[in-house]
Specification:
The protein is an alpha+beta fold and 405 residues long. Helix content is 31%, strand content 8%. The chain has twelve helices and five strands. The protein has a three-stranded antiparallel beta sheet, with helices on one face. A two-stranded antiparallel sheet has the order 1-2. Helix 2 packs across helix 3.
């Protein structure tokens, strides 16, 4: 089946940490997937697809009541929600992944990131907003209602079959009668993969932030707590089958991971969705977030390839593989490597990749994989570029080939 032309991304080189383009087309090929969806008959209880909506060109979230219906995948017909408090590039998110702190007066003194705690000088954090600079750290207090428990093995991290269901537990704290203590009342539920991978990643990030008090870990924890609670609320109220469940809360996260878009920096998400325009429209956002079923196992090669552009997901992979210690040095190394990859992508901005193939690894990407000891996971991708590894690296990865370095 013919492929659509490759989407072109606009790049704005604002900060070295984040690329405003997801990759050199490290995105899923937008083949005519809407016309070759699953042959399984749709659930008759689902709402019918919406007609084409006249505001397809709007960039104002307050003018939107729904997505552009004919671009919504049939499995996502009731798997989205509108959040008018967020800009168009996060319109389907329950919470913005880029802004989790109340803002205060800019602090312009030079310095390193402060550790958060009573000993720090004002509890400062950097912002991606305007004006740029330092801001006081003032997280809103949030007490989660639900407990979520989920686990995943390396063999299932990026491997699943159509119709597969994986277990997840959602619990609520209950007070013991006549006592001051509480217990957790658990409910066993099921969700399609790879939602379970996202849940496990969020739980790991929350656990890490409880022990390591850094800027990014605390920022991510504030986001994670809101997301996990909203997901638990959504899952416990779901009345359909586990196979038909499509999370309104987690789907936007999965879709950005599918495209290799790191969501911590708003302009990079905006430009990835808007392509050549200054602002994304509801049509752009609908195609990006809702045109493909995120649990389709055909998308696994894209999820694997674009994992390299997602520091949190790559850190979680190293955690599952037991390739690094759970400490600040390893956590920060992943982010430093993310900066290296993004800088290399900016330098390769004009390069072209075949439209019908997953792009090969670049030299910098291979170096990051080796540095983070992820060769076992990325062995299929490394097998295609043996010339980019040394003889010792080839042997460690168990790859047959010739090294030129």
């Amino acid at each position: 089946m013919p492929k659509e032309p490759r989407p072109k991304r606009k790049t704005k080189d604002k900060v070295p940490q984040q690329s405003t383009r997801p990759s050199r087309n490290r995105s899923p090929r937008r083949s005519d997937r809407l016309d070759r969806r699953s042959s399984r008959a749709p659930n008759p209880t689902r709402a019918p697809p919406q007609p084409l909506i006249s505001y397809a060109g709007t960039v104002d979230p307050n003018a939107v009541t729904g997505p552009v219906g004919r671009h919504v995948h049939e499995n996502l017909s009731d798997g989205w929600k509108i959040n008018k408090e967020l800009p168009m590039w996060f319109i389907f998110d329950a919470f913005s992944p880029a802004r989790q702190f109340k803002r205060g007066t800019p602090y312009t003194d030079d310095g390193e990131f402060a550790d958060y705690g009573p000993e720090s000088l004002g509890d400062l954090t950097e912002t991606d907003g305007e004006p740029p600079g330092w801001m006081p750290y003032k997280p809103a207090t949030f007490k989660r209602k639900y407990h979520v428990n989920c686990s995943i093995s390396l063999s299932k991290f990026m491997n699943w079959k159509r119709g597969e269901i994986r277990p997840v537990k959602v619990g609520v704290a209950r007070k013991r009668r006549g006592k001051d203590s509480h217990y957790i009342e658990w409910k066993n539920l099921g969700i399609p993969p790879p939602y379970d991978r996202i849940v496990c990643q969020l739980i790991a990030e929350d656990d890490y932030a409880k022990s390591f008090n850094s800027h990014e870990s605390r920022r991510r924890q504030a986001y994670v707590n809101h997301v996990l609670d909203a997901f638990a609320e959504e899952l416990t109220s779901w009345e359909g089958t586990s196979e038909d469940f499509r999370s309104k809360v987690l789907t936007p996260i999965l879709q950005r991971q599918l495209w290799g878009v790191h969501d911590a920096y708003s302009p990079s998400v905006r430009d990835a969705i808007a392509e050549e325009k200054d602002e994304p429209t509801i049509l752009d956002a609908t195609k990006f977030y809702l045109s493909q079923d995120p649990v389709d196992p055909e998308l696994i090669p894209n999820y694997r390839r674009n994992l390299l552009y997602l520091p949190e997901a790559r850190w979680h992979l190293g955690f599952i593989m037991k390739k690094h210690a759970i400490n600040e040095a390893c956590y920060n190394k992943v982010r430093e490597n993310h900066d290296r990859i993004m800088e290399a992508l900016r330098e390769e901005e004009d390069s072209e990749d075949p439209e019908d193939e997953i792009p090969l690894l670049s030299e910098v990407e291979v170096e990051v994989i080796v540095d983070e000891r992820l060769e076992d996971f990325f062995k299929p991708e490394l097998n295609k570029v043996p010339d980019l590894l040394t003889e010792a690296q080839l042997q460690r990865a168990g790859i047959a080939g010739r090294a030129i370095r």
